[in-house]
Every structure is written in structure tokens, then in C-alpha cells.
Write a structure and sequence with these properties.
Largest sheet: 6 strands, mixed
Strand order of the largest sheet: 10-9-11-3-12-13
Order of helices and strands: HEHHHEEHEEEHEHEHHEHEHEHEEEHH
Helix content: 10-25%
Distance between the termini: 62 Å
Strand content: 5-15%
Oligomer: single chain
């Protein structure tokens, strides 16, 4: 009741302003591992426009309510009233006030490069594939010759080494101004239409069946890993569109990161990492917080002892089990299962919210067009010669996302529009922190997935099946045949 009253008060007291919603070089992860010498040196001293989409709208993204539901509306207006960067969730209370005492720990596992349809199109919950009489997806796309490529199950759990593509141009070609018909014509090629099933990913499917799955969780922008992970940390990409290592030298975001906001109030956080920490995308943050950037072994110790920090970001080994191509996806499932099971068994579980998700779609097909989004700031994308036009006024493609908590609603599917800044908004809502940018100011805070007033539905966590892969050894070394009508 108190939370609802706070939200109602917010609607009438928040400062508002008008904004207009507008219509190269890409190193691989392997190059990052080989070339990010600056980040590892820092670490060594302190720690070892066009057609509007018809399947989603901006209504839920721009609503002032903390939890709204997806509605079918005409194309969104070009000018909307939104909250501003710097606004607090409850402007009547001081910054740092704990508004959600039921939650003491927020844990985030962000894996790599898969779309909702690619993983959960066959889940049977949420907005997945359209199935024909044969039980197979009817969804298809056309190649450059006009030949249809129907969605197909991948022959095994390995991926091609260079396709599909998540680059700026490939993503915008796939989107095709909202037509969503350019996946195969882009640099992704026919493999973009591949998908996996419950038999391939039994732990993930069980997780998304037991807990709330979010079928309108979009990447924060139509770009690669680094820009989307920057949105997770700072609610802005700061002009970046790709994985250019030179951007590590960019100045910090003008309004700082969520780590800076937590530090101001002495709120504990850690980035647990296996090979590279996500906070390394901001070298200044990394350098100033070396005591908070620790190896994943410490995560399992903290989970077992019930001493997880208020915010925990857990990074996989990007060189082995991130699920980015060409890796065997079952190795990533093993990592995620280990982290999630450690949280489920932790003494901290009764007061924890864990979000498992992906940074972006990786080039794989998804049938839901990303809606317009509130631009985070006035920083424009640093486009290269030959890049397609675009900006940060639109989300990227959908990604798998599940909210895991004792407070999670049973049998719930979230149709609310979320992006990575919804995680920031949840943290900001808990501690009444000011929004970093216009994007997180207007993000949904994930509370639609939780019931904080009733007895926790998952206080005794469900038993989840083991991942398909029972070891740290890949089940395959290369993918099977990829349908290619033009071959």
C-alpha cells in the first residue's frame, strides 16, 4: 500500500519535460582478449525512422506508472512527456532512502548474443514462434534472391565462427525500418533463422517456465556488446556503436555510472568476473574500485555464506562460455546454472532478485519489431563512413530475460517493455537514486514481475533440471548444415 501511494504521489510531483522521439571497425571477443592490455594492466595491481512496428508499442516504456501492461496502439506519437535524468523515484524522500526493504540483493547475469526467438521461440510461454500443423515454426525470412528461409532447429549446439552478425549495419538491415525482413539478407546470412529447443537447453527452459519470463525485454540499442553493456552500467552508450577498443579511452559518462551512485551512499557492490569485468568498459570506474572487482570464485563463496553485496554483476568467461558464436551454447548454460543454483541455495535467497538475460540478439532472428525508445541524452552515435543512419531513439531486438526471486509471481509472463536500464531503475527505485539519463528515468523497474506484499511464492525455490552438458567439455566442435536456398 505504501509503495502504491508513493507511486501515485510520483505521478503528480515529478518534474517533466518534452522530448522528441526520432525516427568499420568491430574487433572480435578474441581480439579484445588479446588487445585489452590497458584494462588488464589496471586490474593486475588490484585483483587477480520508417515503418512502425505493429507487435510492440512505446506505451509501456513511456508511462509514468512503475508497472504497466503492453497494449496495442497505433504508431507512437513523435513527442511525449517523460521523466528527466536526475529525477528520483520518490522526490519527496532523500536520495539513498530504502524504498524496497524486502529486497537486499540484486544479482545480474548478462550472457552474450541471442534473441528471444532463437532461444525461447519454442518455449510455449510468451510471444514466440507461430507454429504450423507440423509443430514447426512458420516464421521465415527471405534471402537476397527472394528465396524464403524458414526458421529451423540447429543441428547441434555449436555455432558458426563469424555469423550471424550483430554489427550496426547488419542489425539495421535486419530491422529494415520496422519490416523485420532483412535478417538473412544482412551479413548474418541463413543461420540467423536457426533456433534451439528445450532438449538443447533444459535448464534455461525450466527456469523460464518456473519464473517470470519477459517477452518484451529489448536490448538497449541496435548495436553490439559494448554499447549495450554500457547502457547496463550508465544508461547510455556514450556515442559508441561497436566493440572498438579505442572507446575504452573515452571520458566517463557525464552523469556517472550506477557504481558511482552506489558508492556515494556506501552501498556495497561487486563485479565478479572470470576473464574480463564489464566495469572495464569504463577504465576510470575499474581503476577506482579495484577492491570491488573480484574473481567468480569469490561469488560462490559469498553466495554460500550469505554475504552477497547489494548489487552483484556476475561475468562469465568470455573466451569459453559466453554463448557468443562460435561457442557451444551448453557451456554457457552450465555457467548460468551454477550461478543461479548458488543463489537459490544461498542464505541470502529470501531477499534476492536475480535477473538472467543477454546483452543483445547476436544477429539471430526475432519476429517482434523493437519500439521507439527515449533517447538517453544528446550524444549521437559515432557513425563510420558507410554506416547506415540511426540513433539511440529505438531499442535493439528482443533478448531472453527471466526474473528469479522468492517474490516472483507464479505463472507470470511479463509483457511490459523492458531494456537493460530497467535493472538500473530497480536499483534506483530501491535506494531512491536519481536517474542517470532520460532512458533509465523512463524505464520500467521490473516490479510487475514481483509481489512484495504477499508471502513469497518461491521462498522454497523450485528444483530445476541439470543443464544438458554435465562437463566443461564442448558437446561439438562445429555446427551442422545450415539451410541455404541460394546455394
Amino acid at each position: 500500500g505504501a509503495l502504491a501511494a508513493d507511486q501515485n504521489r510520483q505521478k503528480t510531483t515529478l518534474h517533466r519535460h518534452m522530448v522528441t522521439v526520432p525516427q568499420p571497425y568491430t574487433p572480435t571477443r578474441r581480439q579484445f582478449l588479446a588487445g585489452a592490455g590497458l584494462a588488464t594492466t589496471v586490474m593486475a595491481t588490484g585483483c587477480s525512422g520508417g515503418k512502425g512496428p505493429t507487435t510492440a508499442t512505446t506505451a509501456t516504456t513511456l508511462a509514468a506508472s512503475a508497472a504497466t501492461t503492453l497494449t496495442s496502439l497505433p504508431s507512437p506519437p513523435t513527442t511525449v512527456v517523460v521523466r528527466r535524468a536526475g529525477d528520483r523515484p520518490d522526490p519527496t524522500k532523500p536520495e539513498g532512502t530504502d524504498l524496497l526493504p524486502q529486497i537486499e540483493h540484486v544479482v545480474v547475469i548478462m550472457m552474450e548474443n541471442h534473441s528471444y526467438d532463437n532461444y525461447f521461440g519454442m518455449l510455449g510461454r510468451g510471444d514466440g514462434f507461430t507454429l504450423g500443423a507440423d509443430g514447426r515454426p512458420t516464421n521465415s525470412d527471405v534471402d537476397a534472391s527472394g528465396n524464403p528461409v524458414r526458421a529451423f532447429r540447429m543441428a547441434n549446439t555449436c555455432q558458426l565462427p563469424k555469423q550471424p552478425s550483430n554489427a550496426w549495419n547488419a542489425t539495421h538491415t535486419s530491422w529494415d525500418s520496422g519490416a523485420m525482413d532483412g535478417f538473412v539478407r544482412s551479413d548474418s546470412g541463413p543461420v540467423a533463422m536457426g533456433y534451439w529447443t528445450r532438449a538443447d537447453l533444459p535448464f534455461y527452459y525450466a527456469l523460464a517456465t518456473a519464473f517470470p519470463v519477459c517477452d518484451r525485454w529489448f536490448a538497449s540499442c541496435m548495436a553490439q556488446t559494448y554499447p549495450n553493456r554500457r547502457f547496463l552500467l550508465a544508461a547510455t552508450a556514450g556515442g559508441t556503436i561497436d566493440n572498438d577498443l579505442r572507446a575504452l579511452q573515452n571520458p566517463p559518462p557525464p552523469t556517472g555510472t550506477i557504481m558511482d551512485a552506489l558508492n556515494r551512499h556506501g552501498i556495497a557492490w561487486k563485479n565478479y568476473y572470470s576473464s574480463l569485468p564489464t566495469v572495464g568498459l569504463y577504465l576510470g570506474v575499474l581503476s577506482a574500485n579495484k577492491d570491488k572487482v573480484v574473481k567468480t570464485e569469490q561469488f560462490f563463496a559469498d553466495a554460500a555464506s550469505g554475504t552477497l553485496p547489494a548489487f552483484a554483476l556476475v561475468d562469465t568467461d568470455f573466451s569459453k562460455n559466453s554463448e557468443e558464436n562460435p561457442k557451444d551454447i551448453t557451456l554457457g548454460e552450465v555457467f548460468s546454472a551454477n550461478v543461479i543454483n548458488a543463489v537459490l541455495a544461498s542464505p541470502a535467497w529470501p531477499k534476492t532478485v536475480l535477473i538472467w538475460l543477454y546483452d543483445e540478439h547476436g544477429g539471430y532472428y526475432d519476429h517482434v519489431g523493437p519500439p521507439a525508445a527515449v533517447p538517453p541524452d544528446d550524444i549521437k552515435p559515432a557513425l563510420h563512413v558507410g554506416d547506415m543512419p540511426g540513433d539511440y531513439g529505438r531499442y535493439g531486438f528482443r533478448v531472453p530475460a527471466v526474473v528469479v526471486s522468492p517474490f516472483a509471481k507464479k505463472d507470470y509472463i511479463s509483457h511490459v517493455v523492458h531494456d537493460h536500464t530497467s535493472i538500473l531503475k530497480l536499483i534506483e527505485t530501491k535506494y531512491n537514486l536519481p536517474a542517470l539519463t532520460n532512458r533509465d528515468a523512463n524505464a520500467d523497474n521490473l516490479l510487475d514481475c514481483l509481489d512484495l506484499t504477499a508471502p513469497p511464492a518461491f521462498l522454497s525455490p523450485p528444483h530445476l533440471p541439470a543443464p544438458r552438458n554435465g562437463s566443461s567439455t564442448p558437446l561439438c566442435t562445429s555446427p551442422g548444415p545450415i539451410p541455404n536456398p541460394s546455394a
